[in-house]
Amino acid sequence: MELINLLFSLILSLLVLSVLLLLYLTRSPKALEGIPGSLGWPIVGESFSFFSDFSSPSGISNFMSKRQKRYGKVFKTFILGRFTVFMTGREASKILLTGKDGIVTLNLFYTGQQVLGPTSLLQTTGEAHKRLRRLIGEPLSIDGLKKYFHFINTQAMETLDQWERRKVLVLEEASTFTLKVIGHMIMSLDPSGEEQEKFRSNFKIISSSFSSFPLKLPGTAFHHGIKARDRMYEMLDSTISRRRSGQEFQQDFLGSLVMKHRKEDGEEDENKLTDQQLKDNILTLLVAGHDTTTAALTWLIKFLDENPIVLEKLREEHRRIIENRKSGTNLTWSEVNNMSYTAKVISETLRRATILPWFSRKASQDFEIDGYKVRKGWSINLDVVSIHHDPEVFSDPEKFDPSRFDEPLRPFSFLGFGSGPRMCPGMNLAKLEISVFIHHLINKYTWRTLEEENSVQPTVVRMPKNKYPIIVEALKSNE
Ligand code: HEM
């Protein structure tokens, strides 16, 4: 059996190497010669140094700064099987993110394209993208979110009630909390029980398949991801059919889309969605919203521990909220929308951690940036880490300092939630979840880091590798 496995792995590796070699030899665009930079070794290009920097504490900034010093703000490389041009700076951000005249499209990796399905928001462009965004963005507006506030508040309190005098892996807890919230919002899923477990375990497999090797053979992480996606779609199919037959009625995300926007067979109305579009986009929201919010919450708690002055100032804001409240009442919707310092702490977290270190685009026509000609079909990555650590905009960029956000910043210098037509439609939800959670955490507890480890996971979304273990104590009244 072992011999068969060994042979199988050998054949697989040879196959993969030949495909990569073929890619490297046949697809190297001649026009790239005009762009400075190195394509590295045959087949692997510069993937090894990219990966090793990627999971180091400073993330890809080492990889970027070495090359930016040598080649300037625009350079080419070959990483993860792709010829890529990296760019940074405000001009590049403006051109790539506003995507004027449809000059670029989002550039998903093959694994993402396959798992999310062809009708995902991330794979649509132009007018179709605008329409889809309007439909799925509606329930994520501030007004649309109000009805979920009570659930979010209750889940935050219940999660935190379990933390006292325990060792906690913050990333795990944040993940469970954000998944319960999104499961409830989308399809009124109970926060505990068999369905929640099924939802959670399928989602975890789907999520890890994104960073897997793009080989869809039985036994691979990618194949497991596709299978888990199919199981998730079965869950959604049965919920959609219960809703449609009138057996079940809920005023959640699915409820509003099924009621208002479901397209009947053969119907032409472009403002309605087919079941496939519904499922692809629910999965898109889950994938785009879960790891990002989980990571942001975890980094924020870590940064607070490392910056006691900021923590104290934040506590003051939240103490004042409680003092101004009639005794016995709980956090309210209006209080959570008036946490001005908390909002700056969230922005500074997104700047400092830069959870999505680059934004990927594909040129859909020829154009020019910073004097360089970009050709149709090229992969272009906007290096957001350098933008967020530009000392001319953010003095002493490594310092965690929320007061940087006291005054409005110049456009395209802070891209925590992106900018332009692809700007994050879930940002209000993310801010709401984080603000509510932080309110209860800092009013209830103090915590201490258990490991001084700063490595990050080698995944698309930057997260602490050790999941940030802490030990939690009740806050004494004089603290
Ligand atoms: C702190 C948490 C979050 C962060 C830091 C974040 C960040 C971002 C960024 C930077 C983009 C733009 C990427 C680009 O231009 O290539 C984006 C897009 C997106 N985000 Fe978020 N996000 C967060 C939470 C959420 C949530 C909670 C949801 C949904 C429930 C969500 C759904 C999406 C979707 C669907 C897109 C793609 C939009 C499009 O292509 O039109 N995100 N996010």
UniProtKB/TrEMBL annotation:
<keyword id="KW-0812">Transmembrane</keyword>
<feature type="transmembrane region" description="Helical">
    <location>
        <begin position="6"/>
        <end position="25"/>
    </location>
</feature>
<keyword id="KW-1133">Transmembrane helix</keyword>
<keyword id="KW-0349">Heme</keyword>
<dbReference type="InterPro" id="IPR002401">
    <property type="entry name" value="Cyt_P450_E_grp-I"/>
</dbReference>
<feature type="binding site" description="axial binding residue">
    <location>
        <position position="424"/>
    </location>
    <ligand>
        <name>heme</name>
    </ligand>
</feature>
<keyword id="KW-0472">Membrane</keyword>
<dbReference type="GO" id="GO:0016705">
    <property type="term" value="F:oxidoreductase activity, acting on paired donors, with incorporation or reduction of molecular oxygen"/>
</dbReference>
<dbReference type="GO" id="GO:0004497">
    <property type="term" value="F:monooxygenase activity"/>
</dbReference>
<dbReference type="Pfam" id="PF00067">
    <property type="entry name" value="p450"/>
</dbReference>
<keyword id="KW-0479">Metal-binding</keyword>
<dbReference type="GO" id="GO:0005506">
    <property type="term" value="F:iron ion binding"/>
</dbReference>
<keyword id="KW-0560">Oxidoreductase</keyword>
<comment type="similarity">
    <text>Belongs to the cytochrome P450 family.</text>
</comment>
<protein>
    <submittedName>
        <fullName>Uncharacterized protein</fullName>
    </submittedName>
</protein>
<dbReference type="InterPro" id="IPR036396">
    <property type="entry name" value="Cyt_P450_sf"/>
</dbReference>
<dbReference type="GO" id="GO:0016020">
    <property type="term" value="C:membrane"/>
</dbReference>
<keyword id="KW-0503">Monooxygenase</keyword>
<dbReference type="GO" id="GO:0048868">
    <property type="term" value="P:pollen tube development"/>
</dbReference>
<dbReference type="InterPro" id="IPR001128">
    <property type="entry name" value="Cyt_P450"/>
</dbReference>
<dbReference type="InterPro" id="IPR017972">
    <property type="entry name" value="Cyt_P450_CS"/>
</dbReference>
<keyword id="KW-0408">Iron</keyword>
<dbReference type="GO" id="GO:0020037">
    <property type="term" value="F:heme binding"/>
</dbReference>
